[in-house]
Design a protein that fits this description.
Chain lengths: 509, 122
């Protein structure tokens, strides 16, 4: 099994290793510095002692020399001379002991040798009853003096060297400790960056996965890896993605079922409506054979079947729009023709309510790129709305005017209008405004929703504006035919089946 | 008198069309599926042969679309008007490719239907 410790374990181990390394390096450094200090103090002490001892040696020799001089003049006896010699020897032995194992020991020996040489040439002959020359005494004495000075200088030198050595060792140790600490920190840095790197790749995968998921790619899964905690996060992410995907699929399935259901139902309703409408129209056409009440009934049946047909067509349009199957066939169309046809179709409804419909179209408007049947349907829906919501005797205006490279169509009335909240919902399906006097206004509440879908398919814009009490106005913009497209349509290269298509798509709005 | 073969699997639609087309002065023969259309066209000869067919696109046993294909593949050029409750925008293109002379959606705009019949079977 591959070793994959958890994040906490990695961090803990990292900190412990770092701490241990720092501790060891620091302790070793401190111990060594302490040792250097102790050694330095020992040596300093020894050289001070040697200094003193060298001075004592000199004093002892001076005493010895003075004893020789006195002896020669008869001012001292042999015993005094021997005492002075013995005292000088003791001091020499002590100095030798002090200098044991040190660099100054040869100097001490040389000094002692010089003294012994002096004794051989001066003191010993004198004791044996000889008479060494004053010359020899002076020369030998001078050579002992010289050896003494050189010893004192040697001790001073050794003292300086000892101090320098202590300095060097302290500096080296400090450098070593600093290097050790730096190495420990470097090791920790490598350890932690390894830890971070072990998280970086799986975290980057998670971030990428989350972005793809947010972007709608529900099949996104991330490769699980890295420290245990990150791996757990990766697994949880994948579980979440799977859950989201399952939900989305279920939602899509239900949505499709709903769309299919509406499409099927609308289709299936068409057959009975065809029959009812057909027979009702047949009866109303046969006026002579029916009495007035039968004729009235036949007319009502015929009208209702017509309304039913329109509702079914609206529902179908909405279902098609939801399923993305609502299509338009655009061609260059005259604005005037569109407006006048719509007004003519709706004229009976306005006359019935005693409303006045006025139409105004700006002169010399360019053609618009539109599906004439569908824009006719939009205009009919807007006019039907105005007809239903405006009171009797109201005035309704249908206008078309240029607006840059677009044409603005507007239907406005002087009815009760809509308040701000109502305006927000006016294009929602199955929403209907309060008619004020709670009269039945009819309609399914999907006319404006369909109008919006159709205008959006035309790449146009539709909007509603109103002040309560001052009527409502609905406007939409359609793009005009560009010069190029206009020329292309002038070639008359329309497919032969065009009329069939239009008639097939035709249904009374 | 212009003779029309009307095919629809709904008896009530068939009855309504028969009555109204007869009132409009046409002679009407009916069929309830594509196979009956093929059979009746094959059986009728000379003066008895229909002048055009009103064909429901979707019928059991043999659909109007299949009957249309079969007739056209057999070289029969009789005018055929497809009537359907299932027409979507792209459907008429497909029907025209298969050799239909036109499409009319259900429910009918009566005047439009009569217009198309007069156009195809004067």
């Amino acid at each position: 099994m591959r070793l994959n410790p958890s994040l906490t374990t990695r961090l803990r181990v990292g900190f412990i290793v770092l701490f241990a390394m720092l501790l060891v390096v620091s302790l070793l450094g401190v111990a060594r510095l302490f040792q250097i200090r102790v050694d330095f103090e020992d040596q300093t002490q020894r050289y001070s002692d040697l200094d003193v001892k060298a001075a004592q040696m000199q004093t002892a020799f001076a005493t010895e020399n003075a004893a020789v001089t006195a002896f020669r003049r008869g001012g001292a006896d042999q015993a005094q001379l021997r005492d002075a010699t013995a005292a000088a020897d003791r001091t020499d032995a002590q100095a030798l002991q002090l200098a044991a194992g040190d660099s100054v020991r040869p100097l001490v020996r040389r000094r002692i040798a010089a003294e012994e040489d002096w004794r051989r040439r001066v003191a010993d002959p004198l004791l044996r009853g000889g008479a060494p020359s004053a010359q020899a005494q002076r020369e030998s004495g001078a050579s002992v003096e010289a050896a003494s000075r050189s010893l004192a200088a040697g001790v001073d030198e050794a003292k300086d060297a000892s101090r320098d050595r202590a300095h060097d060792r302290t500096r080296n140790t400090t450098i070593l400790v600093a290097a050790g600490l730096a190495a420990a920190l470097l090791a920790a840095l490598i350890l932690f960056s390894g830890l971070i790197n072990s998280m970086r790749a799986p975290l980057a995968r998670l971030v990428g996965g989350a972005r793809r998921l947010a972007g709608g790619d529900l099949e996104t899964r991330v490769k699980v890896g890295g420290p245990v905690e990150i791996a757990i996060l990766g697994r949880a992410f994948n579980e979440m993605a799977a859950e989201l995907e399952r939900d989305a699929r279920e939602r899509d399935r239900l949505e499709r079922m709903k769309d299919d259901f509406v499409l099927t139902v609308s289709h299936e309703l068409r057959t009975p409506v065809t029959v009812v409408k057909g027979f009702a129209e047949m009866l109303t056409a046969e006026k002579g054979d029916l009495n007035s009440r039968q004729r009235e009934a036949a007319e009502v049946i015929s009208d209702s079947a017509g309304q039913l047909q329109k509702m079914i067509n609206d529902l179908l349009d909405l279902a098609r729009s939801d399923a993305g199957k609502l299509r338009i066939e655009t061609e260059p169309v005259s604005v005037r023709t569109l407006v006048q046809n719509a007004a003519r179709r709706m004229k009976p409804e306005f006359e019935e309510k005693g409303q006045r419909l006025t139409v105004s179209v700006e002169s010399e408007l360019p053609k618009v790129m539109a599906d004439p049947h569908r824009i006719g349907q939009v205009l009919s829906n807007l006019l039907t709305n105005a007809n239903r919501y405006a009171p009797e005797k109201a005035r309704v205006r249908l206008t078309a005017a240029g607006a840059g490279r677009q044409v603005e169509f507007a239907v406005s009335d002087d009815g009760p209008g809509l308040d701000e909240e109502e305006l927000e919902h006016v294009f929602e399906r199955f929403w209907r405004a309060d008619s004020g006097e709670s009269q039945e206004v009819g309609g399914t509440g999907i006319g404006l929703a369909i109008a919006q879908s159709l205008i959006e398919l035309h790449k146009g814009e539709i909007s509603a504006a109103s002040e309560p009490g001052e009527g409502a106005s609905f406007r939409f913009l359609l793009p005009t035919v560009s010069e190029k497209a206009n020329g292309a349509s002038g070639d008359g290269a329309k497919p032969a089946r065009k009329p069939t298509q239009r008639s097939a798509a035709k249904s009374k709005a | 008198m212009t003779r029309l073969l009307v095919a629809d699997d709904s008896e009530t639609v068939l009855l309504m069309l028969e009555r109204r087309l007869e009132m409009a002065g046409y002679e009407v023969i009916t069929a309830v599926d594509g196979q009956e259309v093929i059979d009746k066209i094959a059986a009728a000869t000379g003066r008895n042969a229909p002048d055009m067919i009103l064909l429901d696109a979707m019928m059991p046993r043999k659909s109007g679309v299949e009957a249309l294909q079969e007739l056209r593949e057999g070289g029969n050029e009789i005018p055929i008007l497809i009537i359907s409750a299932h027409l979507d925008v792209e459907e008429p293109d497909r029907m025209a490719e298969l050799g239909a002379n036109g499409c009319v959606p259900k429910p009918f705009e009566w005047d439009e239907l009569i217009g198309r019949i007069e156009e195809l079977a004067p």
